[in-house]
Amino acid sequence: MSVDQELVDLAESIFADARDAEQTGFDAELWKNLEQTGLARLTLPEAAGGSEATLPDLAAVLTAAGAFAARVPLVETDLLAGWLAHAAGLEVPSGPLTAVAGALEVTPSGDGARVVGTLARVPWARAAAAIVVLSGDHVVVLEPSAVTISEGVNLAEEPRDTIAVDATVAAGAVGTAPAGAGAEFRLRAALGRALLLAGAARGALAESVRYAGERVQFGRPIGKFQAIQQQLALAAAEVAAAAAATAAAARTAAVDGFAADSTAFAVAAAKARAGEAAGQVARIAHQVHGAIGFTREHDLRLVTTRLWAWRDEDGSDAQWNDEIGKRVLAAGADGLWPLVTGTP
């Protein structure tokens, strides 16, 4: 399943132009450009305001977003909130969206439902035009006016807010979750985060290679020293491994669907491998840059803080590796090779 190179070039150009080390929070101008070019809802059907592209296409866009530290809720809008609302038969709101799976008290009441509860660490809640919540068998679309937001951030200063709701929502804002929605939501979130991680690792490597070619020590660029070259080669191998694992997971999900065991295994491997790469690449990048790389003014922090933050979001390396181990044990000796290769 090939990826449109023009799409990749467009995404890279848009994200590169928007990169700004001095700003934090939601980038409204970048989001406007993504909406105008159809990248904001790439895989959603046309009826839901989407561009009907493939998961591998979205994977390429998300990887570019990670590489340039894009300050927008692409994963949340396309892979999670848009999909969830549409799958529940609800109208997909316009604008940037976010989504979360958590326990709310949803009680049918007249022409709508009473919704009560608190949800923590909701990505981009303060910037969202709507918050789509998966709570048990219910999908609820909450408008900002219906919730109270307590602002929080992750290590990369991306919004991770707490929302409290005690309101009655209209009937058109409450739907029935499709079968297996909880498991699919978890896989979609992990895949999206893994793709962002792979992109951020690529961005950190690019920054390091550039700096090693510019920084002169003892009369020559530090990139000419064998020790630096070896470290950059190790980082490049980690970046390649993360890219391969995440691209394979996106292709598997596109072909087999998120309900397939093959997709669950591929996504687990992708998130675990991208998370492991994140730690190694961030370490090497900062070693190559030296003290300057730790300053707030340097662009390197844009990608390395995201590597550290994202590796623990939507399941840590340990959690996904544990799941891989359980699947391997369940497959047994005869099933190991088919499990790893995806063959019958």
TrEMBL record:
SUPFAM superfamilies: Acyl-CoA dehydrogenase C-terminal domain-like, Acyl-CoA dehydrogenase NM domain-like. The keyword Cytoplasm does not apply. Keywords: FAD, Flavoprotein, Oxidoreductase. Residues 16-81 form the Acyl-CoA dehydrogenase/oxidase N-terminal domain. Its cofactor is FAD. The keyword Metal-binding does not apply. Residues 193-311 form the Acyl-CoA dehydrogenase/oxidase C-terminal domain. It comes from the Bacteria. Belongs to the acyl-CoA dehydrogenase family. This is Acyl-CoA dehydrogenase. It comes from Pseudonocardia acidicola.
